[in-house]
Write a structure and sequence with these properties.
The complex is a heterodimer. In chain A, the strands form two sheets. Chain A has a five-stranded mixed β-sheet with strand order 4-1-5-6-7. Chain A is flat. By secondary structure, chain A is of the alpha/beta class. In chain B, 13% of the residues lie in helices and 43% in strands. The termini of chain B are far apart. Chain B has a four-stranded mixed β-sheet with strand order 1-7-4-5, with no helix packed on it. A three-stranded antiparallel β-sheet of chain B has the order 2-3-6, with no helix packed on it. Chain B is globular and about 60 Å long. Classes of the chains: A alpha/beta, B mainly beta. The interface between A and B is medium-sized, with 13 and 15 residues. β8 of chain A pairs antiparallel with β2 of chain B, so a sheet runs across the interface. Chain B: InterPro entries: DUF1425, YcfL-like_sf. Chain B: Keywords: Signal. Chain B: It comes from Pseudomonas peradeniyensis. Chain B: This is YcfL family protein.
């Protein structure tokens, strides 16, 4: 009997220590796609003999404009988000089923996706939707020089919710941002300047991942590696002391 | 006899010149004069902990009729007496002739338990 109790106690202890499992979705977004088709078909043929002549011509024109909304997931920025969450040690990660063109459900309908088993084995789903993505490419003159600075910048803002897969309770919700830019000095003689786009994307991904991990830690009360633990409210502050006058 | 009197007078003079160290916990014990401090008197200090941060307000008086500039900075110390924040830069505080002024300061971190006020005029 005692042995059984010890075994159950140990199992409970290990169960309590195991970090909850989280599936991180790629950033969901929808875009309006327009298709314009214009087809012209013209044919002309003629025959002429000694006593007769015939001609035939046909012309057809087809024009269509299709517009539809495409829903999909942006797969570029997930890696660093997962990496930074793993670094915090608060969660274990499991891979969910990605949203593909064959998926029948709405990409934003996370509850249906949970019910359809897209995130099997996960206690929580970190559901991210893309709020805005913007590339900026500028050339600015530098005062008192004949040089210019060419800047390629990328900003990504995404909205995240950490959803319990059993109760659908939102445990944490926030907006995170990632920024990155590449700058090069340009002179008038430079013919072509190519800015390093992959590096900008990598920087944005890393910044977004760090922001996600930090905000998760702030809201759930954990610590981010490499940064001091965030005090929650006034709990960590020393108590106030009345004023005393030193002479 | 004369020699004895002279010796006694010299001993008395030396004893008068040696300033006793400031009492621990007094305002004077918190002030460190670096170089020279002319015509400025550091008076009472109000010390409190408000919203978790140590706050200090120091009374200063310019004892001369001329304007003076006081250069000062605070050193914030932890429980062990060692600094808990980066060294501050020197700040200048102009004091008009015979002016009395209060110098407020807030510790940059809640870890500060004590402080030193470093001052000089030249």
């Amino acid at each position: 009997m005692r042995a059984w109790m010890a075994i159950i106690g140990l199992a409970c202890a290990f169960g309590a220590q195991a970090a909850p499992k989280v599936a991180v979705t790629d950033l969901a977004y929808q875009a309006q796609v327009e298709e314009y088709i214009h087809t012209i078909n013209a044919q002309s043929s003629g025959q002429a003999g000694m006593y007769h002549a015939s001609g035939q011509s046909s012309y057809s024109e087809y024009e269509s404009l299709n517009s539809y909304i495409e829903q999909t997931e942006l797969r570029k920025f997930g890696g660093d988000i997962k990496g930074e969450i793993l670094k915090t040690g608060m969660f274990q990660l499991v891979q969910g089923r990605p949203y593909t063109a064959d998926s029948k459900e709405d990409v934003y309908d996370v509850i249906r996706r949970i019910k359809n088993g897209a995130f099997k084995g996960a206690d929580y789903v970190l559901f991210g939707t893309l709020s805005d993505i913007d590339f900026q490419q500028d050339i600015n003159s530098l005062d008192h020089t004949d040089s210019y600075s060419a800047v390629l910048g990328l900003t990504v803002v995404a909205d995240f919710s950490l959803i319990n897969t059993r109760t659908y309770e939102i445990t944490s919700a926030f907006t995170a941002m990632g920024e990155g830019q590449d700058t090069k000095l340009v002179k008038g003689q430079d013919r072509r300047v190519t800015l390093n786009r992959p590096r900008v994307v990598r920087d944005v991904s890393k910044a977004l991942g760090e922001d996600v991990a930090q905000q998760l830690a702030e809201q759930l009360g954990g610590s981010v590696p490499g940064q001091p633990e965030q005090p929650r409210g006034r709990d960590n502050l020393p108590p106030d002391e009345p004023a005393r006058v030193l002479n | 006899m004369r020699r004895t009197c002279l010796a006694l007078a010299a001993v008395a003079l030396l004893a008068g010149c040696a300033t006793p160290p400031p009492a621990p916990g007094s305002a004077a014990s918190k002030v460190v004069t670096m170089g020279q401090l002319d015509d400025i008197e550091v008076g009472q200090m109000r010390v409190a902990r408000e919203n978790g941060y140590l706050t200090v307000n120091v009374a200063l008086t310019n004892t001369s009729r001329s304007n003076r500039t006081l250069y000062y900075r605070f050193a914030w110390l932890g429980n062990d007496g060692f600094p808990v924040a980066d060294e501050e830069s020197w700040k200048a505080l102009p004091l008009y002739g015979k002016q009395a002024k209060f110098l407020p300061a807030i510790a940059p971190t809640p870890a500060a338990r004590d402080f030193r006020l470093e001052v000089h005029t030249r």
